[in-house]
Amino acid sequence: MANLARGEKFLWRLLLLLVPVSASPLLPLGAGTLVRPLSLVPALALLLLASFRILVLGQRPRWPQDGGFWLGLFTFYVIAAGLIEIIVIPGNAFKGQTPPDSFVRALATLGIGLVFYVVARLQLRNLKDVGEAVLWLFAGLSASIALAILQVYAIVHGGTALRYVQAATNLIAVRHGELDNRAQGMTLEPSWLATQIILLMLPPLVARIISRQKSIGAPAQRRNIAIALGGLAIALTGLLCAGSRFGLGAAVGMLLLAGCMAVWQGRMAAALAFVALLAVGGGGTIALGSLSAGAGTGYVLGPVGLLLNGSQNIAIDDPEIATAITDALSVAGRAAAGQAAFDLWRDHFWFGVSLGNSYRYFGRYAPDWAFDTGIFTLGRKEGADWLDTGSPEKANPKNFPLRLLAETGLIGALLFGAFFLGQIFSAPAHDPYYKFFRLTAAASILFSGINQDSFADPAVWIVLALCATMGHLQAPRGIASRPPVLSGTVAAT
């Protein structure tokens, strides 16, 4: 039993360390599958060990009461509604997949997410587990940021350094694109690195600065502020290396939110620290501009210059202004996919068109302005390939709420929303660390949902499990601390 427990502990820590590897070539899932979290391997091993405890040792899981009723109902609904919908959808293959094929592949990504959620709820049992989980996640992401720094160095110097770093990156991540001018760390692309930083690093660091606690249930100490500021410096470095406009914009929004929470709490020094970090980030962007790498590329600085200066030279009634801005921002494709998904939902309001099948309706619902802006010109990844029946590129909304609405209808979106709110706000916030962690986590998940639409990302599920677990482990109001409470372990009957 002791060896089994040690093995589970090792696998759980390995899972947390591997979360940054979001597209591992070690998982043979086909050329069209980019999201391949390597952490799925230890997650499945942990599920097998849990099954061994239940079936062989006669133990049973102590599953928390809020451990997924709405999620289970959502999963049942998605399967039932999807089976009905794919009977109605024409069965012809589109982009190499029939409607049942797309439905099954989408269910597989949901199943991967469920694996991460179940494992996280089983492994997060007490206050120590929560603190260690945050620490190991931070260690894994720090390693990914270290690789991102090396990638930026190689991009700037080019030559042999770039070839070696590119080869090392290809061993870790499925090739989504060659290293050009922005870093991706261990992930499949820069925006994924930025999303992971926002989801897994900012909530605990913001909570630590405002509450001055190391973790939930810990005493408030001033030295925790300095430690957290060091952690935020690492996170900011990763965001600057990634050069993701979404990531930088989301980080600005979250730091402003953190500053407001600090002022609300009366922590003026913490609020000033968040403002100072914004200034440091702006300075870092300008510094990288001289290297044309990371956040200093024209990809990031170009739209800013256009919006701040270029618009002064363009007449308000100039028909070219919309095309110029959307082309500079490179958001026309996503905006078109989002609008198409929204219009698709309006025509399939209650039940959607089944999980995984919204992309095959893009040609029918694509807005007219998308063709006028020229996003469907030859060679654009987000354009003509979306309409090509033989191209693997898909017109997914890249927006989680819109995808839920289009594919599962209003019913599915409400069921998943009930699960989300239940995990984030599982209990009244008595502990200051928990209060600020869950508010920042909710904001980070909402930001990530605007940029990604995959169920297979382990980061979101782990953050939700952390919020729900901390809600039950916090001390009651007026009590400084209490013994750890088991909430999800597999224990003897």
Distance between the termini: 15 Å
Task: Characterize the biggest β-sheet.
Answer: 2 strands, antiparallel
The coarse silhouette is globular
Number of strands: 2
From the alpha carbons, calculate the radius of gyration and give it in angstroms: 23 Å
Structural class: mainly alpha
Residue share in helix: 55-70%
Percent of sequence in beta strands: under 5%
**Mean pLDDT reading:** 86
Describe what you observe in this structure.
The protein is an all-alpha fold. It has a domain at 2-62 and 124-303 and 425-479. It is 65% helix and 1% strand. It is built from 20 helices and two strands. The protein has helices at residues 2-18, 40-55, 69-88, 99-123, 127-157, 159-172, 190-200, 202-211, 223-242, 245-265, 268-289, 298-308, 320-329, 332-347, 362-365, 368-372, 384-387, 400-424, 432-451, 458-473, and strands at 59-61, 490-492. The protein has a two-stranded antiparallel ribbon with strand order 1-2. The longest helix is centred in the first third of the chain and has 31 residues, at 127-157. The chain starts with a helix and ends with a strand. The model is unreliable at 311-324 and 478-493 (pLDDT under 50).
In short:
With 493 residues, the chain is mainly alpha-helical.
